[in-house]
Amino acid sequence: MEWWRPDIVWPILGALGAGAAVGLEREFRGQPAGLRTHLLVCLTAAFLMIMSIEQAVWSARLPMDVVRIDPVRMAHGVLTGVGFLCGGVIFRTGVTVHGLTTAASLWITSALGLLFGAGLYPLAIGATIIVLLVLSALRLFDKFIPQQSVAHLKISFERERAPTGQELRAQLHELGIRSTTFTSRMLERGAVLEFSSNLRGRNWSHMERLLEALRDDARVLEYELMPRKP
Fold first, then answer.
1. Sign of CA dihedral 8, 14, 17, 23
2. The pTM of the whole model exceeds 0.85
3. Is 160 helix (H, G, I), strand (E, B) or coil?
4. Whose CA is closest to 128, among 10, 17, 11, 4?
5. Which of 63, 81, 82, 173 could be a cystine partner for 110, CB 3.0 to 4.6 Å?
6. Where do runs of H (alpha helix) occur along the chain?
7. pLDDT tens across 95-148, in order?
């Protein structure tokens, strides 16, 4: 089997271009899986699909009663394997989860490699363009889509000067922020009282006002406000 045949070279070049395009976008965003990772995923999927399609050639030495040509099984195997790789780029920091979009981009990049490997060029090229639009162009619409600001608040007071959860909720309401039920715990052998809750505001300016109020409150010993996606 000559590797320079057009039906082998073009799928490889197509997978190379698609993987590079998606990888460059992720690299530009500073994501953990960038150009090289997406290139390798797309090329691997294309190589394996080509190998599956060419099974009749390389399996000629096997008895025909054990040969089963089914490229779809290879596609299932590739997507399953990429699922384990995607799990490596998803991590959690506190209550915030990172890497979901990068994992999804790796998953669909493997699908692009399979499309090129199968020789479905119009579908593969169209899918590549759609992926780039979703990753890049749609990001611009985030500025115009109304979104709530969501954050996790953790705040500590001296026990004798600590407000109640109801008082905290009332103060947040004055700032235009809604909160879930406050949970509390005692620290430092009962000397410190810590409250925590999930907060929602119409936009981040409400959270900035909260930060100013926390900095100006002499009763506050420590606080932590962690943004998260709604």
1. negative
2. no
3. helix
4. 17
5. 82
6. 6-28, 35-53, 55-58, 71-87, 100-117, 121-132, 138-140, 165-174, 204-216
7. 566 778 888 888 999 999 999 988 899 999 999 999 988 888 777 776 676 667
